[in-house]
Design goal:
Layout lengths: L3 E5 L4 H12 L3 E6 L2 H11 L6 E5 L7 H13 L4 E4 L14 H26 L5 E6 L12 H20 L5 E8 L5 H14 L3 H9 L10 H12 L10 E4 L7
Parallel strand pairs: 1-2, 1-4, 2-3, 4-5, 5-6, 6-7
Helix pairs in contact: 1-8, 3-4, 4-5, 6-7
């Protein structure tokens, strides 16, 4: 029986790339995102890979979403081997404009929803004699950047929970790790470039160059690089890697 992995935010960007990569590894996939049509499109793309897919269109911040996703995934494939908490948001604002709503939205999607999903799903991993949790964080979980205090706080919180749960479940066969990318070429990145250009007067080429300079490799990363890191951490032979933050940033953050 193939092992299954739950992926949130699976309909585009990093989540979609993770789904493709894990399908190549032979995992059955339970895909979660808000849009049913986008999920169906990803499922069609995966058909040639000969793995089973199931999906659920859901707002992971909604009340009871953790239990809903758990039960649907159990019905589809039984207890999962993996959970990839990828869904998230990133908005920028100076401190004076970082209002309570902006803070709440970041914390709800980037921290509370993944924590609730872990609470709902991880106990069932014991039925597989273990499992893997990979939380998609950010270099903003490891360092501070201007104008993203709400985002950075939410990702720091998720990384903190990852490390705490890694110790809590260390003797139960479940590992918890984080993948912390720098800037990745996605729709979110493109919007970030436009926002910088609008607020600074730079053109989009100059704005993108500004972001590239944050990495010693002087580049923006691609979604497949993040997906490869996730696939590595999900493997059974990665059992000794626990409570870690694996950066995909070209050396920006030195551990």
């Amino acid at each position: 029986m193939a092992r299954s992995v739950i992926i949130t935010g699976a309909s585009r960007g990093i989540g979609r790339a993770i789904a493709w990569r894990l399908a190549d590894e032979g995992y059955d996939l339970f895909l979660v995102a808000r849009g049913a049509e986008d999920l169906a499109s990803v499922a069609r793309e995966l058909e040639p890979r000969k793995v089973k897919t199931a999906s659920l269109a859901a707002d992971i911040t909604a009340e009871g979403a953790g239990g809903l996703i758990r039960d649907a995934a159990l019905d589809a494939f039984g207890p999962p081997w993996g959970l990839v908490n990828n869904a998230g948001m990133a908005e920028s604002a100076p401190l004076a404009k970082t209002d309570d709503d902006l803070i709440r939205r970041h914390m709800e999607l980037n921290f509370l929803a993944p924590l609730r999903l872990m609470r709902a799903i991880v106990p069932r991993m014991g039925e597989n004699a273990g499992g893997r949790v990979v939380n998609i964080c950010s270099t903003a979980a490891l360092a501070g950047y201007p104008y993203v205090s709400a985002y950075a706080a939410s990702k720091h919180a998720l990384l903190g929970a990852t490390r705490a749960l890694a110790r809590e479940y260390a003797g139960k066969g479940v590992t918890f790790n984080a993948v912390c990318p720098g800037y990745v070429q996605t729709e979110v990145f493109e919007q970030t470039v436009l926002n910088i250009a609008e607020k600074t007067g730079l053109d989009t080429v100059q704005a993108e160059e500004k972001l590239k300079r944050m990495s010693p490799q002087h580049r923006v990363f691609n979604v497949d690089e993040v997906a490869n890191a996730v696939a590595f951490l999900l493997r059974e032979e990665s059992h000794g890697i626990n409570g870690q933050a694996l950066s995909v940033d070209g050396g920006e953050i030195e551990h």
